[in-house]
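This entry is listed as follows:

___
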Amino acid sequence: MHLDTVRRCWTRSSDHRSDSPQVILTGSDLDIAAVVAVARYNVSSFLTEDFQIRKKVDEAVAFVLAKSDGPGANMYGVNTGVGARGTITRTNQRTELQRTILKHLACGVLPSAIVPSHNPTFDPSTLVFPEAWIRAAILVRINALLRGHSGCRWELLHGLHQLLVNDIIPCVPLRQTISASGDLAPLGYIAATLSSEMHVRVWCGKGNERKQMPASQALALHGVQSLEYGPKEALAVVNGTAPSCAVAALAVHDSNILAIVAQVCTAMSVEALTGTPESFDSFMSDIARPHPGQIEVARNCRAMIKDSKLTRYHDESDPTQTLRQDRYSLRTSPQWIGPHLEELVTGMKTLETEMNSTTDNPIIDVQGDRTLHGGNFQATSVAMVMEKTRIALQHFGKIAYAQFTELNNTNMNRGLPPDLCAWEPSIDFGTKAMDVATAAYLSELSFVSNTVTNHVQSAEMHNQAINSLAMISARYTYTAIQCLQMIYANHIWALCQAVDLRVLTELFFAQMKIDIATSFRSSFPDEPEALVSELTRTVFNQARVSFGNTTHLDSKDRFTTLVRSLLAEVTAFLEDKPAPRIHFDIYIWQRNLAKTLLESFRVTRSDFYEHGTAAPLLGSTVSLYHFVRKTLQIPFRKGSTFDDEEIDAQVSRIYASFDSGDIVPVLLDVLASAQ
């Protein structure tokens, strides 16, 4: 369900980048994949050449001109004022009214007004929309106007499209819309870009030569004609939900990727913590509680760990498995993540419906010979998608941090060192500061995930008494995405470190068993092999427990303490076997074994530093592991003075892979077996 939807969207967006298929605007079939391709990757788009669509556009224009001309004409926004002023003003200056609509919307705060005579306390660029958001907004608005319900000339639609073709992107104030009568101000700046009478600044140029300039200069540079807005046209352009819908579409796309990350990191956490596949058993979800999202998460996790050598079912005879079941962050992950997959899929459908809808007012019904006054500009559908998406992001962040802290905590991580340090704990703090940073990211994520839509203020002479706040909600969703990407950058780094440490531990356990057996064979050369094997098995099991209980100690003290903890096991075993006991000096054995294990551990650790990899023991999460270790060139962190690079540079590369999209094919490859 969700995975298939995300895979199709990503594949289609990738295909658009090679112009196969092209992004052709028709007013009826724009999708999130196309919005992402155009907004982020500057993929070319094209206006439809369908004659019937152009005919509908032209007929709506003729309808407006006919109905708004002559004595007694009274069309809203053409012969009347707008909003609360629509009931008290009348005019026959139809063109001047459209100019006034654009001019009065140009009242936002822009960085161009900041005098560079002081050191600003914030980044002035944060006052404007990112360019990708505006590209997406222009695309979605053109698509809606193509439906022929708004009364805009084809020349105007062509002019707006030329902004995309030539990558002329207006600088639009970030905070000026309540998404009630649509996103009036953002669309006002977009519309004003084509007006020779407005003073809009735009981004123009390619690569390092891209810079801000007046819109008139950019239009002239690219041979784009400025326009005078005709009756209803300015109102039609500005009165719509395109900006909030566009930003929401980009946000849902990114959130879908993070929903995949939540599942991949959960599977890898099960491996790192030697968890059990039992939590994802098909009977649990498919039969016992068959919610679609829960079924999908369980199926995906089951597939990802199917071939893992690190997961295990509970074995009551194994003394290291005192925890009968995994903790909640692993065991209830299908129930925690699953519902949000269902909401995200529904959210995508809602937004794709919105971007192929008519969202201005009034709406022209040419066939019915009528003008309809309503509220399709009220972007509550978009706002609700964003509210639910942020809740999903917060839940993903919460489970990620729970898994992350379980990896770091020696009381919970089943034998891994504190804070995943690979060197001596007294001088290697590992992920200690990362834990604090991740807590900071989650705290901010949790704050911005609170609802926006219950903070509505009555605006515009009480005409806009209720308003969706969809754009504000979409903006905070992007803040939430940024925080969650930081959480996952840390989590993925930690998971790769953890599985490496787990494999290092398993390699040492294999050598430790040999060392214990050798120590007993040399102590009891005349005793039957069966006795030595039984004693080895008993002591080795206790040694594994003690190894997990001494992770906080430096190596020398650790193995002295570990072997000391074995004395009771050895003594108890030998009590019923008097003959060998007479010839066994337990204190010499203790001293020699501690020395041997210390040396073996140091050799195993040193070898792993040079050649070690967790890859052979991982399930399909190995693709993510290789991406981090090979593609991003982030090695196992050895601690002490062995590392050439700080952690910040490494987690920043993981974070950047979310923005670039480089990590997405890797994640989909991890889940390929789940299809």
Q: What stands out?
A: The first strand starts at residue 23 and ends at 25. The chain has a mean pLDDT of 92. The chain is about 55% helix and 5% strand.
